[in-house]
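Example 3.2
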Amino acid sequence: MAEREELTWELFGSASRELARMIADSGYEPDLILSIARGGLFVAGALGYALDVKNLHVMNVEFYTGVDQRLDLPVVLPPVPNAVDLAGAKVLVADDVADTGATLKLVRDFCAEHVAEVRCAVVYEKPHSKVSCEYVWRRTDKWINFAWSAQPPVVQRAGQVLDA
């Protein structure tokens, strides 16, 4: 098996804190953090606490269906954030990884039409990502084992992945 990047819970704690420090040091003060579910929920929560931002929103986007298996295009799942809630805000989009960048591009483009400014923060960015994120903890071309998805689910639920 190919070498993988391992992000343990402990390392995630350090990574999210360093990512928050980068954002704070840049002078960017987001009004809200928009997490891309599911992996971005962990990042957004950690950044929300570290940056003292309580206004967190979620976009559910389905793209990956397994290791190196993805849909042709990312799909936004309901509920879609209300553009009125984002109007005029400085938004920080948070996700665990910018792999192809397709998911981040979809969310950033959605925001760009409604917000004052949008920036992206990720724990990892791959070299072939379509989106160059403003805040990146680490760059890698390896597959990443995240603490929250390294083990199989406790239960298997049918019908959870959309068919394209």
